[in-house]
Amino acid sequence: MIAESGHYALVLALGLALIQSIVPLIGARLRDAALMNVARSTALAQLLFVGASFVALVMLHVNSDFSVANVYENSHSMKPLLYKITGVWGNHEGSMLLWVSILALFGGLVAAFGNNLPLSLRAHVLAVQAWVASAFYLFILVTSNPFLRIASPPIEGRDLNPVLQDIGLAVHPPMLYLGYVGFSISFSFAIAALMEGRIDAAWARWVRPWTLVAWIFLTLGIAMGSYWAYYELGWGGWWFWDPVENASLMPWLSGTALLHSALVMEKRNALKVWTILLSILTFSLSLLGTFLVRSGVITSVHAFATDPTRGVFILLILCLFIGGSLALFAGRATSLKQGGLFAPISREGALVLNNLLLTVACAVVLFGTLYPLAMEMLADFKMSVGAPFYNLTFAPLFTLLLLAVPFGPMLAWKRGDLLGVTQRLLAAGVAGLVAVAIVWGWARGGSALAPLAIGLGIFVIAGAVTDIVERTGLVRLPFATALHRARGLPRSAWGSALAHAGLGVALIGIVCETTWNSEHIATMKQNDVAQIAGFDVKLDGLLQRQGPNYREMIAEFNVSRDGETLSVMTPSKRSFTTRGSSTTEAALLTRGASQLYISLGDATAEGAIAVRIYHKPLVLLIWWGPVLMAFGGVLSLSDRRLRVGAPKPARAKQRLQPAE
Amino acid sequence: MTRKQRRMTIIGGSIAVLALAAALVLNALRDSIVFFSTPTMVAEKHVEPGKRFRLGGLVQPGSLQRGDNLAVTFEVADGGAKLPVAYKGILPDLFREGQGVVAEGALDANGVFKADTVLAKHDETYMPKDVADALKKQGHWKDDYDPKASGGSKPQATTAQGNPQGAVR
Fold first, then answer.
1. pLDDT surpassing 50 at residue B167
2. A341: closest CA among B22, B37, B4?
3. What pTM does this model have?
4. Interface touch A580/B124, C-beta < 8 Å
5. Using CA atoms, how far apart are residues B146 and B161, in angstroms rounded to an integer?
6. Which residues of B touch A304 (CB under 8 A)?
7. What rounded mean pLDDT belongs to chain A?
8. Rounded to whole angstroms, how far apart are CA atoms A460 and A404?
């Protein structure tokens, strides 16, 4: 019964979405408030029904009801409860259901908290939101129904892919989807603005918090996914330039650009058309990401359960929405009034440069992702575009961006003083150069570019600090005054400084990990000692253990430094009987921001085992950086908490002034 | 500055960044792209030693030999030809004889493929797509590469499960 109820709830949600797609627009045309308000109730009801449908699927998985094909394919009665729940979205059908659930959640949030939006804008936004939702409900119901029954139910399930049986699956996909799908809101706002032919600074003020929320989740989702790959796949890599990773990076790049351009639009009423275009592009890239992951067109380590026939359906959705929205943009964009004029050297100018570099970097990633596909289809030969390509293209563009980052926030609006800013950034520049010199003298081996890159990272961090110091007057004014000013500083200023510093932190982590990573691969017997980066790693012994749905072989390593025992590390190799496959569980020892990493290979007949040991200096900075960025985003969001939605018109006028 | 000059500055800047990106991409395309080959393609086309490419095929049953210090050799076959592969390191969890594999590296002077990466695939039902396509094209595709097709107790609703090789059945 649960499966049928879930299926029925999903059909009802589709019905509601179809009503929500049409009725509010008729209401807006007729200026009928009652009809426009239909959008609000249908959006909330839709959330309720999709939620019910999702809960039904979770219950089926928890109860291990193997008469449902989706549960049979992806679950096992012996699986721990956590993985029974996370297994819901560890497969194609379930993850699409999660996708639409989150879409409905965002629609519901706009409906619930959008009371201060103009009625017709809200009607339009929710209608566009419902178009997207309808398309994806249809997709699920027609091609990927998670509630299909099996005629003769088997007794036991086929179990979830062992690699996915990890806490990472509980966090990474929901976070990523909150990010991807969150950009649907700015998309809907953009389409609504184009349909209404009206756009102003207030529009940007509504869009920015939603974009920021999506951006925060996407940032954390990408970082989380990267860390998951790092510890789960057992080869210590954290980013592979895999098409599926690129699919999440592209919306992040254009979403970051959108955040910055919306700022210009909000403060200076300029870059309107561009902001609209970016909103459309960002969500289009999210849709493209969904297509790449879900259609299986690309050979990828992430393509777990894919089916090319579904690809055609998503491709249609993709063409419809991207093509349709860009056509609407082309038709209507010229009718939007251009605003605000500014000098090239100004805060606006810096933000334009930011947008330019981010979108071009995004285009490069898009090219690298789609080029092999295009060549395969047109010229019929296969190739892969990997890290070397991106090192030669993406890295230089991002270097330029990072060089410019400290200047941006310190330039004044309208007309900036580049020379003055350079003088104020002198200390940060010197800090960067000192870092280059120190690293140069101290480091052995590695690329000559590494010290320069670390210097750049330090410059970005010091630049963010300088920005805060300048704003609070820490050096010029008495300490008490500075403290007072620091308290009065808008939280968004702290937010942007933290986010920018996070970039520098991540860069330093990336450079240290890739340059001074040491690796030791050997076959070890009991009491063998491996030496790596000053650590002595001794194999104490091997033991077997039975887990809930797997057997595992654990190796115990005693890690010591200068004769002093630091820790015992226990990497293991698990073999899952149902799927007949195995996973490697790496063991990590964290020392400050550095990590020692041990993963196991095959055991030989003589009781020896292949072992891979890495020492990764400052590797954790790679993820602390994004966490810092996300925290900056949260601070900035809390600053605008009172401004989510439209303020009263009289106040809105005041806020149009540059806010400093 | 006049409005026109300001606009020209921004347009000029944009063009400069775009030109830079285009130059970077074209430069990178020259030597950082890796092509995919099967043993048959390697045998037909003369591939220079030292030229990096990706080799895909099935691990020839009985060919896997483990040497000292984690050195392994095995043969990759695609039905038409075989190519010896040497690798040093830990093979991925799902590496099996008779299963699909993708390795990246280059030929040495003796015609042995020196792999520096052997790609891990996550799912035992998953054949690397490159390999599956190449095998199908050469007519060496067999149904029993698809574990689901050969499984005896197959429930009727497997269409609900994504299956890249479903079309071959």
1. no
2. B4
3. 0.88
4. yes
5. 13
6. 122-123, 126
7. 88
8. 9
